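[recover] target loaded
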């Protein structure tokens, strides 16, 4: 029997599963969604690539966490250097001062064009958003973006490497990204799901690629998807 749970958030899905006496495997998966992914522990393993950073504030927040070696971080932005806003410039300067590396003009689905054949233990993409709802190849453009990104990321992961993607946690975004389908298309295992709270990273302020606004300000629930090959 297949169980499908819908609600305003993953927490609601857990509550539904409990009420329906769902199988233990389903409950285990959904309960994991109530845990937070440990970005600090992962970054401490070294060689972490951040893509689509916009203003580089998340990479900076992680670089400042206890035990993290900033020199192991490469923070990248889609924008060219000349197009960066003041906040992005300031954060990039702070990252460089800490010893991290910063690179602009990096397109997440085409990493090899700008970073060559380099490999990482962790590749992180926070809140990918193409700022369009016009279908592409019959799919939501965000689904297409993440699928291309994951397919490309495989060639840049070290053995045991992970790809980590955070999104808004809602039925709309679940339908837009379809992360389980993305994983299958890109050759990854079904992702583990965790909750994400931006407030855990005080210096973090999400910024869209298309503008300097945030796609998450009007939302309160967020999820982190962790993909392993």
């Amino acid at each position: 029997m297949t169980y499908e749970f819908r609600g305003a958030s993953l927490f609601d899905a857990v509550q539904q599963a409990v009420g329906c006496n769902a199988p233990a495997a389903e409950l285990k998966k959904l309960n994991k969604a109530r845990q937070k992914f440990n970005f600090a522990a992962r970054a401490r393993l070294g060689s972490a690539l951040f893509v689509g950073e916009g203003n580089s504030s998340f990479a900076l927040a992680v670089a400042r966490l206890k035990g993290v070696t900033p020199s192991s971080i490469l923070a990248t932005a889609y924008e060219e250097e000349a197009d960066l806003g003041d906040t992005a410039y300031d954060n990039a300067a702070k990252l460089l001062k800490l010893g991290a590396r910063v690179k602009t003009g990096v397109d997440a689905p085409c990493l090899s064009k700008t970073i060559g054949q380099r490999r990482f233990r962790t590749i992180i993409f926070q809140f990918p958003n193409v700022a369009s709802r016009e279908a592409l190849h019959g799919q939501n453009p965000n689904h297409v973006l993440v699928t291309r990104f994951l397919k490309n990321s495989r060639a840049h992961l070290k053995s045991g490497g992970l790809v980590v993607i955070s999104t808004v946690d809602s039925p709309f975004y679940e339908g837009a990204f379809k992360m389980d389908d993305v994983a299958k298309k890109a050759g990854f295992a079904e992702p583990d799901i965790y909750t994400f709270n931006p407030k855990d990273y005080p210096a973090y302020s999400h910024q869209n690629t298309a503008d300097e606004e945030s796609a998450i300000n009007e939302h309160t629930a967020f999820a982190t998807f962790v993909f392993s090959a």
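[recover] notes: The domain at 36-228 is CATH 3.40.50.150 (Rossmann fold).
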